[in-house]
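[Automated response] Your request has been received and processed.

Submitted sequence:
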Amino acid sequence: MSTEQTTQQEAVSIPPMGIRMIAREFKKDKLAMFSLSLLIVILLFAFIGALVLDQETVTKINILDRFARPGDVSMTGHKYLLGTDEGGRDIFGLLVFGARNSIFIGFSITIITSIIGVFVGLIAGYYGGFIDSLIMRVVDFIMILPIMLIIIVLVTIVPRYNALTLVWIMSAFYWVGKARLFRAKTLSESRRDYISASKTLGTSDFKIIFRELLPNVSSLIITNLTMNFAANIGIETSLTFLGFGLPAKTPSLGTLTAYANNSETLANRPWIWVPASLLILVLMLSINYVGQALKRAADARQRLG
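Generated structure:
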């Protein structure tokens, strides 16, 4: 065996975070395990419920059942579990479709921004020099912009605005933080012996980046995905609450909580906005505790490495 091959074997990288390590952390943390179970229940509630219910029927205006209380029965014999809103629409059905839309938007933004951010960060951190400087100047420019105000303006002027439009608008701005984070991690990893050994052996840059660097930042990717998932859901619901998110006709957790803007509804009709508010709170806490468990698993991986 040659000296170069021996050097490469000695300079092994830390193995990616495995399923067993993650499972061990969840078994040790009962709150994280409960949060994971609760998160799965919410996802099943939103996506399976959306398949069972008919959105056109749920969102249909029915003035005769306006502001029906929880448990009231309509003239057609339909029982409203959570009551109705000012248009006579079933709050339970709106909660199902609203949760699905908010989760879908948050997840889509997280995936798109992570793909862009990880790729840009790996390229900038690995090559350095002029490429790194150019990319970081672009990132710095976007980060100093009033992003929330720009999103509000774009939402206002874009014709035929829908959920996908919101996903692309938010994704266009929120990848920069990830790019800076993974660029810093890549700069650190690029100085390790296993990268130097691979370069010495003539391994192509493509293979080094995607076969060696990428697996060694996988734990950071997983934990960052989890935390940003909750953050993106929060941004979407906040924008919708303020009237600059999804259109009013599109159900979301933000549109339901936006009913609290009316003082009469806020004080006397809590069944309209409280269920969505509680669901947002439980969803955020569940994702946060799951993310903390994943972060501890990543830290344990680093210690073992």
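Summary generated for your ticket: The chain has 15 helices and no strands. The radius of gyration is 24 Å.
If you did not submit this request, please reply to this message.
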